[in-house]
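Regression test case RT-17, inverse folding.

Input:
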């Protein structure tokens, strides 16, 4: 398709390798067990956020640390529980899960400061301290974009179906 846009091939290669590495080294695969938005698992959401982050960096020709951006994006929702379950500890999920994800990710992986920044700040502005690096800003934007699509996507399909 002529108008279709893609991240560059190098970015996709790093994404594929990084998914493999993180699944081997830690609990990324566990995210397949938890739903994030609609019918999307946390795992699918995280891979999509990494992909859209690559797309943003590529289209805007931004100089970014691809590896750190992808690792941070893949681990940004590494909270590892089902936030839909009725449990008092999940009530503040929106505010607390960034730090829970960071804590879990630090246990399983050696994170650099950009990766920590991406995970810790991805809920800006709900968590009020803004990101301090371009990679964290990109993932923060990509996350909001993906969350909106995943939440509204089924509704839009249903509306289209109803309209015939
Ligand atoms: Fe999140
Ligand atoms: Fe997210």
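Golden output:
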């Amino acid at each position: 398709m002529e108008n279709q846009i893609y991240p560059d091939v190098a970015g996709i290669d790093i994404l594929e390798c990084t998914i493999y590495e993180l699944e081997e080294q830690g609990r990324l695969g566990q995210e397949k067990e938890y739903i994030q938005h609609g019918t999307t698992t946390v795992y699918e959401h995280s891979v999509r956020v990494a992909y859209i982050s690559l797309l943003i960096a590529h289209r805007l020709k931004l100089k970014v640390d691809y590896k750190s951006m992808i690792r941070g994006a893949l681990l940004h929702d590494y909270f590892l529980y089902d936030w839909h379950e009725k449990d008092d500890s999940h009530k503040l999920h929106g505010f607390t899960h960034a730090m829970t994800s960071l804590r879990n990710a630090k246990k399983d992986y050696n994170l650099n400061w950009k990766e920590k920044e991406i995970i810790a700040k991805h809920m800006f502005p709900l968590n009020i301290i803004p990101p301090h690096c371009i990679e964290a800003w990109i993932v923060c934007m990509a996350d909001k974009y993906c969350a909106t699509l995943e939440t509204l996507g089924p509704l839009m399909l249903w509306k289209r179906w109803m309209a015939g």
